[in-house]
Amino acid sequence: MTLPVGKLHAQSLEFPLVILSNVPFEVSWDGFTQASPQNPVIIGGFDQGSLQITSNTGASSVFLSNKHIFEYSSNDGQLIQKEIFPIPGWLSILPPLLAIVLALITKEMLISLFAGIWVGVSIMLSYNPINGFLRSLDDYIVDTIANPGHATILLFTFGFGGLIGVVQKNGGLAGIVAIAARYAKTRVRGQVATASMGLFIFFDDYANSLLVGNTMRPFTDKLRISREKLSYIVDSTAAPVASIGLISTWIVFAMSLLDGQLKVLGIHSNAYLIFLLSIPFSYYAILAIIFVFMNALMQREFGPMYSAEARTITTGAVLGPGAKPLSDDSQLKNAIPEHIPHRWYNAVIPILIVVLMTIVGIIITGMPDAFPENSGFIQKVLMIMDNTDSSQALLWASYIGAVVAILMAMGQKLLSIKEALESWFEGARTMFLATIILVLAWSLGSVCTDIHTADFIVHYTQDWISPSYLPALTFVLAAIISFATGTSYGTMSILIPLMVPLAIQLFGDVHNVMFWATFSAIISGATFGDHCSPISDTTILSSLASGADNVDHVQTQLPYALVVGGVAILFGFLPIGLISSPTYLTSILFYILSIITLYLILRFYGKPLPAADHIEVESY
Q1: Other Cβ atoms within 10 Å of 150 Cβ, number
Q2: H helix runs in 486-547, sequence order
Q3: What is the 3-state secondary structure (H, E, C) of 363-421?
Q4: Cβ distance 449 to 490 under 8 Å?
């Protein structure tokens, strides 16, 4: 494997930190000054043959099975050897799989997540557990906290927790519950009200989860709605709503990826228009929202959710035995002095400030120096959303909302400055456990990226894909990747560049039903896996905002998500590819079949809850 003799300057070959056996990876080179198409540099020894270098710098995808030694000349003419040790591909799925299994068995999220990180880093460092432990701390957890985007979300979480602490202490949340109790006095109405609130906050799933969960939690507790059910409603009206919202951080991210692929392929089509056309084919997201309302109205449950709801109705215990809620609201339960009046606007105004300032922050952070000439309103909105920093906007909004809440409480002489600040810190402290879990979940996501978990899954599933089954298989593949890695954005980043060219090649262009269904399958599958994974940040935030145990939330929600996901495949993504010439009318008919199927499942498999009708909120 010796390179041809010649005067080559500053030559180098760069390989990834981790290489999976029999999975393609990219090798790049620099400094091969004599290389050209007429005079290529040949490096032998790759399993697929030889690597031919024809430029000074470049990259190529190759793969290996076993240990290999590569040799090339350094700048001073000496021969440099580099040993490459591919690891078995199945080891790449071990870190997330270990974390998920341990979390479900032990219900200890901190230990489970760190175990996944530790094992993954140890594998990357030649199976050395000591170095793996040390590097897990400094190369992954510390770097995760130092990431500006992650740090912003952590500060936002503390800020919003502090805001909730203030509006609980000043009687604002109690006032909301008192107002809501006048119109939604039963468990059914309480669940419908919570889900409806989730539909209105469509621009960001983080904001949706934290606002709806924290606002409705005291109210649903009074109605004897379990924390597991509350977190399910919050989770099912956060990411699914954001994934089909006309303007949301989710959609802008997906459109940016799609637009990049269209430009690479030389296709001059509007990515936003393609998204709008694809909305009717987002079977999982739309059915998940419908199922929440159907479940609430029919008052039937099945699986672990039935046990959780029956427990709460009969005993009043909103949490299960041994539950460890991510937000510890024990300090806040009795934090409202009797002399403080319950004024709803002391909570509504600060929360509205958060919503409005988030929108303003999105505009400020995304506003370009100048818009292109002759750009329309929609184009300007899309350009702002494409450039915005939603985490920064949420950070600003949460602390501005907290300041407003404190000033309102002081202005009405409800709280002194000392009491207001103490209530803010009490609220912020309730978020501590969740922020640690978020950091560990992000760190595990980085490990999954470095150990190529998604690459392994894609490589060994891509051969299953055929034109008729493309939407269904794309949904399944996206669900597997997002469940294993806990990230919807990461899943879209992987699959949109992979599936869009494939779909165009199979279906001819971007303006046909099969392409729209395939594109929607990516987003819906990413939503499903992210929705169900215990290591997903949106799952964690839903548990946090609802005051639920994260593992209990996953265990009770998973059967419902699997049912909806199965129906979405059997009556949506699968038949849309099997019938000839599908149309928009066809997709609507599929929804009718899907809704009927979900109704029948609830009607005949779900069980009525014990004496649910007598529970009402008389006063608060």
Answers
A1: 19
A2: 488-507, 513-532, 537-546
A3: HHHHCCCCCCCCCCHHHHHHHHHHHCCHHHHHHHHHHHHHHHHHHHHHHCCCCCHHHHH
A4: yes
Residue 604's nearest CA partner among 592, 593, 612, 596 is 596
Q: Hey, what long-range contacts does 105-113 have (CB within 8 A, 24 or more apart)?
A: 107/322, 107/324, 107/549, 107/551, 107/552, 109/437, 109/440, 109/534, 109/550, 109/551, 110/436, 110/437, 110/440, 112/534, 113/437, 113/440, 113/441, 113/443, 113/444, 113/535
Which CB contacts under 8 angstroms, 24+ apart, belong to 178-184? 178/342, 178/344, 178/619, 178/620, 179/344, 180/219, 181/219, 181/222, 181/617, 181/618, 181/619, 181/620, 184/219, 184/223, 184/617
Q: Strands 57-62 and 41-46: what pairing?
A: unpaired
Q: How many CB atoms lie within 10 A of CB 1?
A: 14
Rg over CA atoms, the chain: 27
Please give the pLDDT value at position 332. Answer: 46
Kindly tell me if the per-residue pLDDT of 135 is higher than 60.
Answer: yes
Q: How far apart are CA 274 and CA 523, in angstroms?
A: 13
Structure tokens at 471: 């939407």
> Are the C-beta atoms of 600 and 295 separated by less than 8 Å?
no
Q: Once rounded to an integer, what is the mean pLDDT over residues 268-290?
A: 86
Phi then psi dihedrals of residue 45, to 5 deg: 105, -10
Where do we find the tokens 């503390």? Answer: 158
Written as one letter, the residue type at 147 is N
Task: Name the H helices within 245-335.
Answer: 249-264, 271-278, 283-298, 304-315, 330-333
| Whole-angstrom distance, CA of residue 511 vs CA of residue 277 | 9
**How far is it, in rounded angstroms, from Cα 224 to Cα 309?**
8
The whole-angstrom separation of Cα 559 and Cα 601 is: 12
Show the tokens assigned to 553: 């939330």
pLDDT band at 336 (very low <50, low <70, confident <90, very high): low
Higher-scoring residue by pLDDT: 290, 38: 290
User: Would you state the pLDDT for residue 4?
Assistant: 39
Task: Classify 10 as helix, strand or coil.
Answer: coil
Exposure class string for 117-139: b at 16+ Cβ within 10 A, else e:
bbbbbbbbbeeeeeebeebbeeb
Q: Say which amino acid occupies 237.
A: T
Give the Å distances, CA to CA, from 216 to 24, 74, 168, 358: 49, 66, 12, 20
- Among the residue ranges 36-50, 63-77, 194-208, the one predicted with the least confidence is 63-77
Report the C-alpha gap between 410 and 332 in whole angstroms: 19
Integer Cα distance of 610 and 591 in angstroms? 31
Q: What angle, rounded to 10 degrees, do the helices at 187-200 and 227-236 form? A: 30
User: In which residue are the tokens 């051969």 written?
Assistant: 463
C-alpha 226/C-alpha 194 separation (Å) is: 13
Exposure string of 65-85, with b = 16+ CB inside 10 Å and e = fewer, is: eeebebebbeeeeeeeeeebe
Place of tokens 């091969």: 32
Average pLDDT for residues 94-115, to the nearest whole number?
80
Instruction: Tell me: pLDDT of 292 over 90.
Output: yes
Q: Nearest-CA neighbor of 336 among 415, 437, 248?
A: 415
Judge contact between 233 and 502, C-beta under 8 A: no
Name the token pair of 333: 């339960």
